[in-house]
Amino acid sequence: MRSALDCRVTAAHYYPLQLQFTIGDTRGFGSYTNGGYMHQVKQKKMLTFKSLRQSLADPEFLMSDFAKFDRPLQLHLGFQALHAFRAAHGELPAPSDAAHAAELLSLAKGMPGGGDVEFSERLLRNLASGARGELSPLCAFFGGIAAQEVMKACSGKFTPCLQWMYFDAEEALPGNGVEPLPAAETAPRGSRYDAQACVLGWKTQEQLGRLKYMLVGAGAIGCEMVKNWAMMGLGAGEGGKVVVTDPDTIEKSNLNRQFLFRPWDVTKAKSDTAAAAIQQMNPQMTIEAQLNRVGPETEDIFDDDFWEAPYAPLHLSGPSAASGPQHPLALSALRHPAPSAPQHPPALTPLHPALTPLIRRSPACATRSTTCRHASTSTSAASTTRSRCSSPARSAPRATCSSSCRR
């Protein structure tokens, strides 16, 4: 028996894990026989944060892209310059306005500490040009981060972000953001998509409207996807269309995370209900609801004629773009357009990237399965290659969200 015993245990499974704990005074206990329990007691950790005034002058950054270590400080000063610009002019810089961009760069260099920073003129120009824009996917993404931070503050659990987070994706802008878009491409037209077009340009906006997309599963992720598509105007132009298929029906347990559904929709088909809700959000969007599974039993429905129907291709810019047209039916995730010229600086995202990376990625729980051919276009104009879908959902007889994310 000892008054105290320091113990160190190392357990190796997938990776080594070391635990260190202390056994207290055991002299008042009887003789040990066998068994017993060990309870982990989580220790409190005190976190301190600088005041806004201190943090503006001496910031700490949460890195969002480790390939861009020089960006956070530039954007930190750039956002302060945006506030200064608005204070001086009563509005944010206009899209594609070279004079406004030059003034913003000058203001950023004049901020405390700005004289020691090597600014990218292109970065600050894109920040100025996109200041009045809002892209739905980023609104949803950063809204989720903000909500998580509120929950952390209310619960006292989990580690909050420390202390500034900036995100940019110049490479997703038309032409990688190397050259500014012409003023005519970003000028408002009195459309619900003005705030999106001032970042991406009207040419890209019209291409989004002509796209044909298919969404497999109208569950939690599916609701967010199709809502974003509607708010962005995807499939809302001439020749555009969105097909939503899901054989499942709405249950009461779905309502807390599948926001397109209401209590009176319980027992109704998910795809039909989601399509009806989306039609109210954007009446211009052409959307078709189906109750079909995607698998071997529906190959006569989702056949080559279905996948290879005529469509308006979207030519994407950037390093990830293929030179050929994109597949007519694809899967992705996005969000909502905002007023044409909001007169306040964007809350968290300094740049408003185009949707190229998001369109080209799809979650595993929403991919086509079995014999459905996943879209892969070659860079050759003479031929188009196709490969079998390598998604984990491939072997599942039902390509819906229920397999991996608890719809």
Q: Would you mind describing this structure in some detail?
A:
This protein is an alpha/beta fold and 407 residues long. It has a domain of 185 residues: Ubiquitin-activating enzyme E1, inactive adenylation domain, subdomain 1 (FAD/NAD(P)-binding domain), CATH 3.50.50. The protein is 29% helix and 9% strand. Strand 5, helix 9 and strand 6 form a beta-alpha-beta unit. The N and C termini lie far apart (54 Å).
Topology:
Blueprint: E1 5-12, E2 16-23, H1 52-57, E3 61-62, H2 71-89, H3 98-109, H4 121-129, H5 136-155, E4 164-165, H6 183-186, H7 194-200, H8 202-210, E5 212-216, H9 220-232, E6 241-245, H10 270-281, E7 287-290, H11 304-307, H12 356-359, E8 373-374, E9 387-388
List keywords for this structure.
407 residues; alpha/beta; FAD/NAD(P)-binding domain; three-stranded parallel β-sheet; two-stranded antiparallel ribbon; 9 strands
